[in-house]
Design brief:
Layout lengths: L7 E5 L4 H12 L3 E6 L13 H10 L3 E6 L5 H14 L5 E4 L14 H29 L3 E5 L23 H21 L5 E6 L7 H5 L14 H13 L2 H4 L3 E3 H7 L22
Parallel strand pairs: 1-2, 1-4, 2-3, 4-5, 5-6, 6-7
Helix pairs in contact: 1-2, 1-7, 3-4, 4-5, 7-9
Length: 283
């Protein structure tokens, strides 16, 4: 048997990048995937990738997947997404909160409407979606929630700042959201432990080359040696979604760190391995 045979999995941000890779890997492990994002068709967004492409790739390998075009910045749309999962496959067994909306702008220049929308997607939506899927998970005494964080959650530390316009410039909003999702992860994990539900949080050890990270110039391209392939995030997410409750719940970890810990990666680099992670990853 595969690790997710028959399980219903919702993956947000599944049109491209890490989310699409997670959806493909989980489907190969027998899951029935609800692929959620705003971009239904190629060309609907300036970046390459779409739900139809991800779903077609899954189905071409005899996997089971359904696209749901949705704007999770709206609470009603979050309800619609989980309702669609129910109608299509049944109660959700695994929720992967991966979708992200990023604007790399200094706080002084950040339009308030963009700030609020970013928080709605990156933090409020994981809360709302988790609350909705917990209705069934608590009743079934089973389930897993995997939140995707980022190395951006590690702040610049105390001053003085010799390079205030360096690579972290404009990342205050995104970093704060990801730090919040890590605290949310451990708090929720503690709350639902009694119901045998796992809640974990995962960040890349190195920047993952995706259409988004290339667009924001975090890496030069898909073959940038500073990056890690998206499959590492997918494999780490699969591990967190399928390991026994007491082995992983409440973990805030990094892709290469946990893969090496479980003997699934011979050599590891980056955050959590060569450099320290956030405080939450060390608790």
């Amino acid at each position: 048997m595969s690790r997710l045979d028959g399980k219903v999995v919702v993956v947000t941000g599944a049109s491209r990048g890490i989310g699409a890779e997670i959806a493909r890997l989980f489907a190969s492990e027998g899951a029935r995937i609800i692929c959620a994002a705003r971009t239904l068709r190629e060309g609907d967004h300036q970046l390459a990738g779409s739900l139809e492409t991800t779903v077609a790739e899954i189905r071409s390998k005899d996997g089971e997947a359904t696209p749901v075009a949705v704007n999770i910045s709206e609470p009603a749309e979050c309800e619609r997404l989980i309702g669609a999962a129910h109608e299509t496959y049944g109660p959700v067994d695994v929720l992967v909160n991966n979708a992200a909306l990023t604007y790399f702008l200094p706080v002084q220049e950040f339009p308030i409407n963009r700030w609020l929308r970013s928080w709605a997607v990156n933090f409020h939506a994981p809360f709302i979606l988790s609350q909705i899927v917990l209705r069934d998970m608590i009743r079934e005494r089973s389930g897993a929630i995997v939140n995707i964080s980022s190395g951006a959650a590690v702040g610049p530390g105390s001053g003085p700042y010799k390079n205030p316009t360096g690579s972290t410039s404009g990342g205050t909003c995104y970093g704060a959201e990801k730090a919040a999702i890590e605290r949310f992860t451990q708090g929720l994990a503690s709350e639902v432990y009694q119901h045998s539900i796992s809640v974990t949080c995962l960040s890349p050890s190195q920047v993952v080359p995706t259409p988004g990270t290339v667009y924001h110039r975090l890496v030069d391209g898909p073959d940038d040696p500073r990056g890690e392939p998206p499959i590492l995030m997918a494999r780490a997410a699969l591990l967190l979604a399928t390991e026994p409750l007491d082995a992983v719940t409440g973990r805030v970890t990094y892709s290469q760190q946990i893969l090496k810990e479980y003997g699934l990666l011979p050599e590891a680099r980056g955050r959590g391995v060569e450099t320290r992670g956030t405080g939450y990853s060390e608790i």
